[in-house]
Amino acid sequence: MALKILSYNILSGGQDRLPLIASIIRKQQPDVVSILEANSYSNVEALAHQLKMHLTFGEANERSQTHIAWLSRFPVLQSENYRLPIFAKTLLKIEILWEGTPLALFAAHLKAGQYQENDQHRAEEVRTILDILRPLGEKLHLLAGDLNTIHPTDQLDVSRFLASRGRKGENEPAPQFPRLALPLLLDAGYVDCYRALHATTPGYTYKLPTPGLRIDYILASPTLAHHLQACDIVIGEEAERASDHLPIWATFRH
Questions:
Q1: Per-residue pLDDT tens for 42-75?
Q2: 162 pLDDT higher than 80
Q3: Which end of the chain, N or C, is less packed with Cβ atoms under 10 Å?
Q4: Which CATH superfamily is domain 2-253 in?
């Protein structure tokens, strides 16, 4: 049986865009959805109700109001919210049963910012995440979410990024976009599902309306990556109006 995972930063809790967000998710027919910027519990609860999915909510640490949630068509066997001081927001885990096999799903929203000190913080967040993932060994698991960092080989369109922020670039320092964090996951064997299946397509997910960066990921453990069937970005007029990020999805098959 195929399993479809979708990850979506819905921007500031979704606000009045919830019907549009629900429509986008429903059309994709995912089995499990990680929701980033789940700032309003009532909003993600309403979203779960509309989609007839189980809700697991992960409150961010005391320095942030930017929470994380998982929506699941499958019953959640267990969950854990890692509200550690190093995390800019939090790390939320759920475990489901897929074809009789336990599958651990982690969602993260790493620290934002385009400068070296921001990426150094993200690297520390990733090292902590790897410490949490390491005991899982060969057990099937993945990490999804808005990692606010760029793949070491990805190209980016700075002009599009600046335009999306209403900046023309005159008399402004060029964005740095350091790439310290993601290689830690790649070196540990985690597979960037989108790049594994799209070697050269940019796959930009941020920032609408003219995305020029790919910062949203689904990263599969080596054992789960063997089951990867498809991965892509949700595009189209609806998605362009619903958030400043495009959703990403991946399908796995036993």
A1: 999 999 999 999 999 999 999 899 999 999 999 9
A2: no
A3: N
A4: Endonuclease/exonuclease/phosphatase (3.60.10.10)
* Strand stretches in 2-84, DSSP E: 2-9, 32-36, 54-58, 68-72, 78-82
Residue among 170, 147, 146 at smallest CA distance from 159: 170
Taking the C-alpha atoms of residue 237 and residue 137, their distance in angstroms, rounded to an integer, is 41
Sheet containing 32-36: order of strands? 54-58, 68-72, 32-36, 2-9, 248-253, 228-233
For 199, list phi and psi in degrees, rounded to 5: -65, -35
For residue 62, with 0-12 CB atoms within 10 Å meaning exposed, 13-18 middle and 19 or more buried, which class applies? exposed
CA 71, distance to chain mean position in Å, is 13
Return the beta strands (E) in 99-246 as ranges: 101-109, 141-146, 191-192, 216-220, 228-233
pTM score > 0.85 for this model?
A: yes
